[in-house]
Amino acid sequence: MTAPRAAELQRRIVQSAQVLVVACLVAAAGNAGITIFLAHVWQLDGIIAVLLSLVAAYAGVVVPARGRETSRAPSASPFV
């Protein structure tokens, strides 16, 4: 009777070890990917700054101009 229990226990131990090895490999690959990504992120700073300045310029020029166009139309809002 102990042989089937021992075999089941051994199977579970082997399965747990396999899951642990796969988890370690996934963690190592993720760590390497994050390291490579962070090594190149500094190159994106200039692009992000340019895009943010373009968005700020758009918000400062186009959005108020559209507000003036819509302010001529009658509004049902009491806050206008």
What key phrases describe this protein's structure?
single chain, 80 residues, mainly alpha, elongated
Notes on the structure:
The protein is mainly α. The protein is built from 2 helices and no strands. It has helices at residues 2-41, 44-71. 0% of the residues are buried. The model has no long low-confidence stretch (mean pLDDT 78).
Write the topology of this structure.
Layout lengths: L1 H40 L2 H28 L9
Keywords: Membrane, Transmembrane, Transmembrane helix
Number of domains: 1
Q: What is the count of DSSP helices, taking H or I runs of 4+ residues? A: 2
Largest sheet descriptor: none
What is the H-and-E element order?
HH
The geometry reads as elongated
Radius of gyration: 30 Å
* End-to-end separation: 84 Å
Structural class: mainly alpha
Mean pLDDT: 78
What is the number of strand segments? Answer: 0
